[in-house]
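Continuing the series of single-chain predictions for the mutant panel. This is the parent chain; the variants come on the following pages.
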Amino acid sequence: MLRTLLLSVLAALALAEPKYLEDLALEERVIGGDVVKPNSWPWQISLQYTNGGSYYLHFGGSLIRPGWVMTAAHCVDSSRNWRVVLGEHNITIHEGPEQYMSVSDVYIHPNWDSNSLSSGYDIALLHLSTDATLNKYVQLATLPPSGQVLPHNNPCYITGWGLTSNGGSSSDVLIQAPLPVVNYNTCSRSDWWGSYVQENMICAGNSTQAGCHGDSGGPLNCLVSGKYVVHGVTSFGSGAGCSTYKKPTVFTRVSAYIDWINDIIG
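Parent structure:
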């Protein structure tokens, strides 16, 4: 649920500051979304970690090469035993198409600073221990050309596991929500995100549909020339609540990091 409004103006302003999505209330995830047709986003991965012999859903990501996953830097800056699940739909059961991969190496962008959310560079690459088997359930994401910036209102979808609405019941299956692009000139206005948003980011969504806790690292899938392209990596939202007026979800703009991605992957 959205946090209770505080009487103090200063406290209210503090709540409006951006936070990485996993720092927001656990019950808030994809807001205003719907259940997807199984494996309709076949590059979406579930990023999990082990604790006491069990695996737990942590974040999302995108399969960009058979042995490589793209996610957010803030998702993987802790030392954990990571596992990537490909072909996932219902996270509570094994349905058959899933492929389970361990992570051999984590590459975080060298300019990322965990203490400076607004600086950007919230992107990381995971090298899988073995290559994925590509099929109708597991496919590679298409990435944009270097430097491409999408126009205002370009149609996109965020995908992840979580609630379909504020205060609603949680979902064990993958959820999608339409998040149109909000251009930089609008999103960087003082009454929107202001200086928190940089040109190496993308804003998308509105006050009824948004990403939230658990969606970090997952893709922003944008329709370009009749094809869905992963233009964003889910990064942060408002501390006042995931679906907050003039505080759309903010993503790392993938097209700003194509050279870095190619340098790492080779």
